[in-house]
Design goal:
about 15% strand, alpha/beta, 7-stranded parallel β-sheet, two-stranded parallel ribbon, 4 helices, globular, sialyltransferase cstii, chain A, about 210 residues
Amino acid sequence: MPKWVTVPKDWIGQDVFIIGGGTSLNGFNWDLLRNELTIGCNAAYKLGKDICKICIFGDLKFFKKYKDELQSFEGIVVTNETHLQNTKEPWLWTMRRESIGLHEHSLGWNCNTGASAINLAFILGAKRVYLPGFDMKLSTDGKSNWHNYGLDKPNTAICIRMNDSFKYVYRDWQKKFADREIINITNDSDLNYFPKIEVEKFWNERLLK
């Protein structure tokens, strides 16, 4: 039988930042996230535990290439990759994967790790989920990530498919987690299912609190 973890609701009522992969995070001041609760998508674990508290991934080829580094990561590593459900790696948290939507005891895939991270944040109890780096498009020079650790060639069609799948996240957010918030803090993002705030305005206001 699969070894699925029961995620503790340690972040009830808290703000959680999902570190996306978009190129809008080039030059971002990562120290702004040092004292925040964060879930980093894929290669965000390379930022270290102080910035990326939890790393989540959903691709088997990512696991195969970066397994040793993921195992050495001092934070928590979570996946809903179906081929890893029976893993014997004690350091890896495995959760059931659902194809679409948001769920209370499993993680909806929705064609991208960012959507699964939102689902995980809600399961952990997050009240507000902030989305930096959710560009959902290629940069003007054809790149897809703020880092150089992506495994796939940048592809506009993939961005469009991921973006479209967020309609299922939006649907279940309204149905199952209507008391929570999702706020996109990515400038010039193609992801339009959630309220947006400009990056500079957001951090100026947050640092004044």
